[in-house]
Amino acid sequence: ENKMTAMEKRVEALERSRFQCPKEVKVDESMRRARKDVEEKHCFSAQWKWVPTNYYDRPMAERAKVLGAASTLPLCKSLVLENKQAPSSNEDPTNPKYILVVIQYEATLDVQKLANAIRALRPVKERLNYNQFDFRVATTEDNDSLTGYAHNSVTPYGLLKDIPIVLSEAVVPLHFFWMGGGHVRLKLGISVTEFIKSTNAIVADISQPRDGSVDDNEGD
């Protein structure tokens, strides 16, 4: 039994070293799943960064500094949305019940633009009416069952269910951006081109420049 304990400690130490965890963080299944998917998809631009426990209490400009970003523009969040009008059993990729969107913190989601983007997935004559779209932020329960990630740790990699991913086209000119990494204190940075290639993300105009206050903690 002591030998097993020693072996388990050695394995844990090796894993902690690989993930470069802070002392108080224990490697969990969510972190493993996210990293495994990123590595299996050969995302060579990927960078993993641990952030302080008070990261979400800090102003956006300070968060950008923590990540080594030149501005707040590359800081993004992943939001799971539900189309309330789509059938629950719907698996049609051109009319998904759930989607995951990646948008900047410095922007707000425009659900009308998002509906336009999803409608455009079909040929003109087959497009759905606008009244067949009603996108809302998914419940915590749906988010957890679809992604397997807790609040503020959602990442588009290693999702439990295969749902369409939409990247805001405003992120594209940045070339590199940051998002959740599978743990509330772990962030993942990646090149835009590698992200699109590895996730088959739909790139679309889905956001508006931010005006006024929004919930900085919503999403990733």
Automatic annotation (TrEMBL):
CDD domains: YbaK_like. Signal peptide: none annotated. It comes from Cyclophora tenuis. InterPro entries: YbaK/aa-tRNA-synt-asso_dom_sf, YbaK/aa-tRNA-synth-assoc-dom. This is YbaK/aminoacyl-tRNA synthetase-associated domain-containing protein. One of its GO terms (molecular function) is aminoacyl-tRNA deacylase activity. Residues 75-196 form the YbaK/aminoacyl-tRNA synthetase-associated domain.
